Amino acid sequence: MNQISMKKIFILMMLLGLLALPTAALAQDPTAEPTAEPTAEATAEMMEEAMPTEEAMPTEEAMPTAEATAESDGAMMDEGAMAVACDEDYSVQADDWLSKIADKFYGDVLAYPAIVDATNAAAAAGGNYDVIDNADVIEPGWTLCIPTADDAQALLSGEMSAGSAAPAAGETTMAEGEAAMTEGAYNFVLVPKNLGNPYFDTANTGAQEAAAELGVNVTYQGSATADATEQIQLLNSLIAQQVNGLAVSANDSDALVPTGAEAIAAGIPVVSWDAEIAPGGRTLHVLQAVSEDIGRGQIQLISDLIGGEGQIAILSATSTAPNQNEWIMWMQDELTKPEYANIELVATVYGDDEDEKSYNEAQGLMKTYPDLKGIISPTTVGIAAAARAVQDAGKVGEVMVTGLGTPNQMREYVKSGASPAFALWNPGDLGYLAIYALNALASGDITGAPGDTFEAGKLGSYTVDEDGVVLLGPPTVFNADNIDNFDF
Ligand code: RAM
Questions:
Q1: CA-to-CA distance for 266 and 245, rounded, in angstroms?
Q2: What domains can be seen in the chain, in order of their start residue?
Q3: What local confidence, expressed as pLDDT, does residue 365 receive?
Q4: What is the best residue among 31, 190, 191, 193 to mutate for testing ligand 1's pocket, by most ligand atoms within 8 Å of CB?
Q5: How many CA atoms lie within 13 A of 25 on its CB side?
Q6: For residue 395, which of 24, 136, 399, 424 is within the disulfide window of CB 3.0 to 4.6 Å?
Q7: What is the tens place of the pLDDT at every residue in 344-398?
Q8: 83-97, 273-287, 411-425, range with the lowest pLDDT
Q9: 379 CA distance to ligand 1 centroid (A)?
Q10: CA of residue 232 to ligand 1 center, whole Å
């Protein structure tokens, strides 16, 4: 999308009164990488899926607070009366992305193009600023120009120009890998649990591949943290924008039901994928692999790694994550089998799909349970953090880590022995399938009823099962023998 069309959207949104949006961050896609097709054998067995049925629990909606906090006297641009001034300079921190910074200064995640425009114009005017060629790629240490809230609004509405010398202001505000927006085509949104997780970035790569094949637009938008309330705020704003379809990895199965139901009532199909929205709040669910197989497979993996005996702990994502909770339930069930009588599950802790928190939780487990033999982390964020914590503690070989991880994040830990084996499906295929399913619904090819079938490009034909679920397929177990065959 170019600057003009992006601005058109913002002007339209202002007219619709939609700019006072909640504090959910608009997605960036910093690590879009091509996904590789699995070539090694999948070792998990397919089994019957049991779907959870819990009660809907509406979540309170937080209101946005738009406030400009910038007060320092940053550099002025020498660009004439119409050019914007930098009210404050901002140094990019690790884990920053532009919509997060826009939220910090303006209380509006969608205001980031104003920062892009102002920074590029300031750089072009000779100021000591970094040029933002791609709004998805900013580096720690870069200096950005932060206009006042009023100037940012004026930039977004087109009332003010950032300065004629701006070299590439806002020209590439879309996520890397997203296809150019096609006018008149469906506008779908892929919503991850949170941003900054390579697993979801890879899913987006697959979603963009599907979008290009189908001639639809898919934008990738999510909140900064894996939080149901933030996700609901984002979904409400997307419903108000009348997007043509939502593909959501849910932070809470039940809390998202009313919002999903509202979307469906407004004629917007809702596909949950990866982490389920409970029936009633979704049109259908795209399941990565049979949950029972995933859960039981995790216990089989840890048992093999620790020789069938000793203390183990689970390091999960958030306590409300529908997918992890389902898998943990099956892990606990598997542990009741006689062959695991000598394995003791001593704790389940939550790292919230945040690297640092997960690392700290893993450290805490090793401290609290000095005899701990294994950690199962059924989250790509948690497993990498746990393996690093084990390595840093000098406990490779003593504490074994397994779970669900991406090959690229886990390669070094497979090779070091901290995590000799773990599992996952291809997240790129999952995103690809979610968009094909959404397109089949939006175009009226299917309604999501059991027995409905649709084609999903390179993945072939899929059928909606009796629970309103479309199943991607079995996961792959990665180890030293096959890990180098994968690149995602
Ligand atoms: C994390 C997320 C995601 C889950 C994977 C395995 O990336 O929690 O929902 O499916 O791990």
A1: 11
A2: 3-63 (no CATH), 83-157 (3.10.350.10), 187-289+428-472 (3.40.50.2300), 291-424 (3.40.50.2300)
A3: 98
A4: 193
A5: 25
A6: 399
A7: 999 999 999 999 999 999 999 999 999 999 999 999 999 999 999 999 999 999 9
A8: 83-97
A9: 5
A10: 19
Ligand 1 binding pocket includes 90 (Cβ within 6 Å): no
Pocket-testing residue among 252, 256, 298, 379, ligand 1, by greatest number of atoms within 8 A of Cβ: 379
pTM higher than 0.85: no
Strands (E), 288-398: 310-316, 343-350, 372-377
Longest CA span, the chain: 79
Percent of the chain with pLDDT over 70: 78
Least confident of 143-147, 159-163, 209-213, 423-427: 159-163
What single-letter amino acid sits at 36? A
Question: How far apart (Å, rounded) are the C-alpha atoms in residues 272 and 278?
Answer: 9
The CB of 201 under 6 Å from ligand 1? The reply is no
Residue 381 in contact with ligand 1 by CB distance below 6 A: yes
Asked if residue 354 has its Cβ within 6 Å of ligand 1, the reply is: no
8 Å CB contact between 331 and 295: yes
Distances (CA, A) of 12 to 16, 123, 194: 6, 29, 27
Distance from Cα 249 to the centre of ligand 1, integer Å = 9
Closest residue by CA, ligand 1 atom 11: 379
Nearest to 445 by CA among 459, 464, 429, 458: 464
Look at the chain and count its residues. 488
If you average pLDDT over residues 290-310, what whole number do you get? 98
Quick one: DSSP state of residue 476? E
